[in-house]
Amino acid sequence: MSYLKLKMQADRAIALSIERSLVQLKKDTTSTVQSVRSGAERASWYGSCLFDDYKDVCKQLRQEDTRMLLSIRQVYQRKDVVLDMVEIYFKIKLSRISVPGQHNIIRTISEKLASHASDKFSKLSIAYTIAKLITESHDFKASHINIINKSSLVAVSVLSFYGKMQTAALSARKLQFSDPNYYSALYKENLELLYFMIEPEMNKIIYLTNSGASDEEEIIFLMNKILTK
Length: 229
Known about the structure:
The chain has one domain. Helix content is 75%, strand content 0%. The protein contains 12 helices and no strands.
């Protein structure tokens, strides 16, 4: 079971316990205050629904709120939603690479890994192999766990949840602008509003894989960078 799923299940149990006992847990931290402020800001935007000129804003807010519920559902339905999001990105990248080019990528990975690990990954798809190596790397895992710990999707107060919703929505909007193809692929899988959980490291990966002369060179460069750490 993924760390995200375990964390959300634990948070949900805590939230339900607090609700049943009518005890409100308050943490005086900067992140909590900011979360509530962001939630209040987002909630205030619903005032736009009263004005015809802002119907589009109102519609976008409602769509994002609905899609967040769909995204949270994916956390429980999938074995590892983070791994899936990274794999989706590399499926897009690999679709632009020839079969010989994909073989070069696999060769690079095999040369960097120990023989037993190479045998293990050789039976998996290339996109899955790359995604697995990335999500298990120290930098990616540390960043991901840090974001989850600070941004639980289970919240006791409405404003706190809405603050997290605002963070997720802004992250998805930025991705839609910077990488429309990846955003669209995540959207089809009801995952775009979970992108904020991997945004810091994925932004680096997207930058690196868009810096070479070809998609093949970009991925090989990335794999060399990750596997030599």
